[in-house]
Amino acid sequence: MAAFLLSLVMVFGVLTLFSAFLTLVTWPRRHELNAKPLKLLIAAGTVFIFAVVGLFFTADPYEMEVTGEMTPPSSVDTIEEEVAFHLEEERNSPTGDNIEVMDLNLEDADQGVNIALTLEADDNVTTDLLRAGTHITSARLMQRLAEIDEAEDIQLTWEFFVEPDQEASFYQEMMYLEMHQENIQTQNWAQVDSEDVPEVVDAYEEDPAFLEED
């Protein structure tokens, strides 16, 4: 919900500025144009204000630390079921409602199991919002999955759905993050910002295209 409201703020913020400029330029002809630019300004501004208010009353979309339920019910027996439990709990958070899992792989490690998830990156208004949202969701998922006793390394791969104009659509790897269970549990996530995530995790890779400024 918070990600949706943030998108509305961005889109209708731009639309409000544009309609304000259009209203100013066409003001002498407002009667001839039946005040259409002014009506657009009022409509866009109203949506923008409601989105800002809604975002204000929604849980902080940049909350990095997980504060929800972390203990699975007694009916959960397998690692796969524990992973599913934590994914579902995170989907109920303000920033996790669009989590889509493409693949889950469990690999034996020296002292437990490496949990590797491939997820679909959520489309967003700008590259910066996409990157920040992915960092936040990754950090929160790692905190949850690190609660699994057998977990050793948590590996998250994010893929972005690409739809070229003249070619077949495909998934492209956008980001990879890896972190050891002990490092996840000892990290003070309340003091971590989204832009700090690449330095906090044990391994980080990002497609160069997503390093470009919008």
Automatic annotation (TrEMBL):
Keywords: Membrane, Transmembrane, Transmembrane helix
TM annotation in the entry: 6-28, 40-59
Name of the protein described by the UniProt record: Uncharacterized protein
Organism: Salsuginibacillus halophilus
